[in-house]
Design a protein that fits this description.
Elements: H1 2-13, E1 32-38, E2 45-50, E3 55-58, E4 77-84, E5 90-96, H2 121-124, E6 131-137, E7 144-149, E8 172-183, E9 188-197, E10 203-209, E11 221-224, E12 238-246, E13 249-256, E14 262-268, E15 276-277, E16 290-296, E17 303-309, E18 316-322, E19 329-333, E20 342-343, E21 350-357, H3 359-370
Parallel strand pairs: 3-20
Antiparallel strand pairs: 1-2, 1-21, 2-3, 4-5, 5-6, 6-7, 8-9, 9-10, 10-11, 12-13, 13-14, 14-15, 16-17, 17-18, 18-19
């Protein structure tokens, strides 16, 4: 089985001829959904399909679709996000990070480094990493890939230390949870992500990428941070941004670490802000949670905010629904009592994102991975 998986992973990783354009289907032409997620046990990319947005089935029997150690500098990926662009292509952005690379937390997993983190944890913090994995496909089978290493950037960060000295990008403590959205005014792809300088406070930055998803077009800029507190610095960390445009309004979901990690909501008329916090948003989850992703149920004026319940045992996702982004109702957890959200062949998924598909696209994926 292992040899078969490695062969399949190699078969779908790269395609040198990925330059084309397809007409993106309208919502009426779509009838399926794809979910991407990772697992701590393998730090690899997994996918699941649904035809009704409620019941989900993992492709490849929940074995990795792409092995993290074949595409990432740290030999592992986390926080995958999938976005369907205006050219019909699928844009996949992931954190280049392995948090268990120095020991065998899970049976059969290899050891990739001798230290807990890539760099000293006291100086660069928990989960320190340097980059992102960016991939593009028109069929979700053949992919092109680019690795972005932010420590190689020569542009200024705009951040100084306590002595007023500029901190360069080589001192970035993390680059996490990238997500892609389309800036209609600029006609460009915007990728937003969590970052911090050394072991400082996490905040949200953004860059613009070219259509091939192979090159940064702009230097990173600040998109969102917590209100300032003492010493003229953000009072707490914000991570895991998710942006969706509804009508003329951009909705930002993010995780606030002002106390227990909690999903929050903010809005703006501009994709890069400023965003105004919504103090009324409440998803009803009392325990710490993260990784919000907002997606639409096809054919309905209903949007789902999905989040990662990392404090629940066993690990699970929570779901809330809204029709107006003013009121949100909790509909439960995967396979929970009374919840409409079901899994048929997977569990322990982490940090997921959903994108719409046509039924034909979903069937082709099922056929490919059932071989």
């Amino acid at each position: 089985m292992k040899k078969t998986f490695l062969f399949l992973a190699a078969a779908v990783l790269f395609s040198c001829n990925n330059k084309k354009t397809t007409q993106i289907p309208t919502e009426d032409e779509m009838g399926a959904y794809i979910m991407v997620y990772h697992k701590d046990a393998d730090h690899s990319l997994h996918m699941a399909l649904s035809y009704d947005s409620y019941t989900w089935t993992a492709l490849n029997d929940d074995k990795p679709i792409i092995a993290g150690d074949t595409i990432a500098m740290q030999k592992g990926i986390r926080d995958p996000h999938i976005f369907r662009g205006p050219d019909g292509g699928f844009y996949l952005a992931m954190t280049d990070l392995h948090i268990f690379a120095n020991h065998k937390k899970y049976e059969g997993t290899p050891i990739y480094r001798e230290t807990q983190w890539e760099r000293d944890g006291a100086s660069y913090g928990w989960g320190n990493n340097r980059g992102l994995v960016m991939m593009k496909s028109f069929d979700l089978i053949n992919w092109t890939r680019t690795n972005l290493n932010f420590s190689e950037l020569t542009c200024p960060t705009g951040i100084t230390d306590m002595h007023g000295n500029p901190i360069p990008w080589s001192e970035a403590g993390c680059v996490w949870a990238p997500e892609t959205v389309y800036d209609e005014e600029k006609g460009q792809l915007l990728v937003h992500f969590t970052t911090r300088m050394k072991n400082g406070t996490e905040m949200i930055y953004y860059i613009y990428m070219n259509d091939d998803f192979t090159q940064m077009l702009t230097e990173p800029k600040l998109l969102f941070e917590a209100p300032y507190g003492k010493n003229n610095v953000p009072a707490y960390t914000v991570i895991d941004s998710d942006i969706i445009k509804i009508g003329d309004t951009y909705h930002l979901f993010y995780v606030s670490h002002e106390g227990t990690a909690t999903v929050k909501h903010a809005t703006s008329q501009n994709i890069t802000g400023p965003y105004v916090m919504d103090d009324k948003y409440d998803d009803g989850e009392p325990q710490g949670h993260e990784a919000p992703n907002c997606w639409k149920r096809l054919g309905q004026d209903t949007w789902v905010v999905m989040f990662d319940n990392y404090n629940r045992h066993p690990h699970n996702f929570g779901f809330v629904e809204t029709n107006d982004f003013q009121t949100f109702r909790m509909i439960g957890y995967f396979d929970g009592e009374g919840s409409p959200m079901k899994r048929t062949n997977f569990a322990e998924q982490k940090h997921a994102a959903v994108a719409p598909l046509t039924v034909e696209e979903a069937k082709k994926l099922e056929e490919f991975w059932n071989k």
